[in-house]
Each structure stands twice: as C-alpha cells, then as structure tokens.
Amino acid sequence: MATFTSNSVAETIAFAQNWARQLLPNEVVGLVGDLGAGKTHFVKGLLQGLGSTEDATSPTFTLVHEYRSGRLPVFHFDFYRLNQAAELAEIGFDDYLEEGGIVVIEWADRFAEALPERTRWIRLDAGGASERTITDETR
Ligand SMILES: Nc1ncnc2c1ncn2[C@@H]1O[C@H](COP(=O)(O)OP(=O)(O)OP(=O)(O)O)[C@@H](O)[C@H]1O
Ligand SMILES: [Mg+2]
User: Fold this and answer.
1) Per the structure, how many domains does the chain have?
2) Lower CB count within 10 Å: N or C terminus of the chain?
C-alpha cells in the first residue's frame, strides 16, 4: 500500500498525472474520501496523465462526463447523488466498464458492489488546509 503526501493542489495533480501513465484500457479507478478531499483534482491530473486537454469537473447533473481527447477515453462518474445501484443499470454503467477506456468514480465506496474485482482503489484524506494523503489501497 503506497502513500503519498501532497502539500498543494499542484502536487495532487502532478501525482495523479504520473500515476495515470500506467493505466490500460478497461481499468477502473475508485476514488474514496470526504467532501473536499481532492477527488476531482485527482481526476484532473489523471486526465492530464493520459494526454487529455480537457479539464475535469464533477458530473453533478449528469451521472457521467466523457473525455475523449487523451490516449484513452475517460468516463468520470460521481456516486455522491446516486440513490440506488439500479440507477447505474439505467444508464448502462456495465457497458462503460467494457468500452476500452478508463472509468473513474468519485465516492466509489457508496456502491462498491457495483464495481468489478479489478478496481483500483485510491483514498484521499485531508490532513490540514493544504495537506492530503493519497493512498493506493488496491487490494
Ligand atoms: N493538496 C491538495 N490537493 C487537492 N486539493 C487541495 C489540496 N489542498 C487544498 N485543496 C483544496 O481542497 C479542495 C478539493 O476539492 P475537490 O473538488 O478536488 O474535492 P472532492 O474530493 O472532489 O470533493 P467532493 O466530494 O465535493 O466532490 C479544493 O478546494 C482545493 O483547493
Ligand atoms: Mg469532486
């Protein structure tokens, strides 16, 4: 279990950017952490690491944002406002898992049972105003 301590937004983005370079088609990244822990900023870095020119923003009113300008497409979900797993079936969530892109999910632990075994788990914890620990908890 690898832990990185970030002391700024820029360090979080740089970490995620570097971390994302290993990602292969159909990988799933589950982000876990409280409000303001830095999940969306991790996604911003992940996109940059895949060579995307887009800026990630949380999918709030739609369940998914799709970014297609990088080496792999990225499907960005946020389970915060999801009420039940059945809503995932309605939007064809399982199809996104097999699209050949990267599925990255904020608040992934809210519906962990909807995610495949191969999911990589990243936890972010706030240590102070600008300190965040980022732990790769992939089991
Ligand atoms: N080291 C850091 N890394 C990331 N964000 C930081 C850091 N230090 C301070 N911040 C601040 O913490 C906040 C993180 O916001 P972000 O939207 O990424 O969180 P989130 O986990 O996606 O929250 P939410 O659950 O609301 O979606 C921002 O306001 C950012 O400026
Ligand atoms: Mg967010």
Assistant:
1) 1
2) C
